[in-house]
Protein: MFS transporter
Amino acid sequence: MIDHADRCEQGRSLDTIAPGAHPRPVTATTLPAPSRRLPHGAAFWTTAAVFLAAMAFTTIPTPLYALYQQRDGFPTWVVTVVFAAYAAGVALSLYLVGHVSDWVGRKPPALFALGLEVVASVLFLLLPTVPVLLVARFLTGLGVGALTAAATAHLGELWRGAGGPRRPGVPAVVATIANIGGLGLGPLVGGLLAEYAPAPLVTPYVVALVVLVLAAVAVLVAPETVERSSRAWRPQRLTVPAEGRGVFSAAGAGVFAAFAIFGLFTSLAPSFLAGEFQQPSRLVAGVVPFAVFAVAALGQVFFTPVAVRVQLVVATVAMVVGLAGLAAGALVTAEWLFVAGGLVAGLGVGLLFRASLGIATGLVPAPQRGEVLAAMFLIAYVGLTVPVLLVGAALAFLPAVPVLVVFSAAIAVLAAVAGPRMAAKAAR
Structure:
């Protein structure tokens, strides 16, 4: 069994991470805030709201893809290509600029990211053709990679600046809720507006544009927490541990499987609901991904005190059972079973992702953990992209139900192999 110190070290590494979060430890200075800036305590919550809003924008199109399909008549596999453009943008941005807030400050990358999202929202509004959708989604991904790095670190520093060391775990919980919760909130907002507001392919982006502009104002009035320094730029380094590569491979398989599920529910699940279950409601198309992400976020928060080994057991069982329910719901055309399977799998996704990152970072000394995390995040975004693209390619030739069943079986096997391997490591 791992001793208490090891468990606490794993807990600390886990508590600083959320999907897309900054993959390297940082050293920052809490600078005195000018009088025109918000106090650190207030800025902590406004920064959390900015993070939530920016992440929500990235998934607002989720329930709208079926409407684009109806309007333009393109096949489902095109949705996967549009989604892949977003994931490619995130991965590229994490690798190239995800770490620059360490020396340029937290606010410039956040403002740059929000600017990219504003441009993307204007493109969605003015030129919503497939080629422009690809560009808009790629820009959105670039913004996410830059913003999550800066925002996650900024929250921790603002909390310390506000005198919050007595509750040091608060920033990690808030960052998790803002990050995964924002990803879940986007489909809900998009679905609500598409269902009940006029111009369903316009109104969501108008609302998003207003919110993003307000978010930029909130960033401007927040205090900076990093003293700007001159430093030569280089891409984020990647490290694969020389020892424990088998466990690292299991952890990589874990994050790959987790993000494959996220990819399914933010790209194809709404189209599947509309096609196979004849579900016309855009609200339902938004509520289902929202619920999956909400369960993933809440699972991470509530299982924080639980031993990593137990988290991995729960995650593996939830992933396998949930994916089985997902496939069974598709086979017997039972919408409730499809949704229930997604929710159970969502719990497993959140726990498996969190535990996989903790296991991977525990394989190397502290100075190398940022580089290991960078490698893990790139694996995660490959998991977000490649399986969805393969599903999209298969849908060009095969019916949707068998494709979904094979996808569910493959990811369940991956989770069933990776989870026990990491649990054995955590038990030592």
Remarks:
- DSSP finds 16 helices and no strands in the chain.
- The radius of gyration is 20 Å.
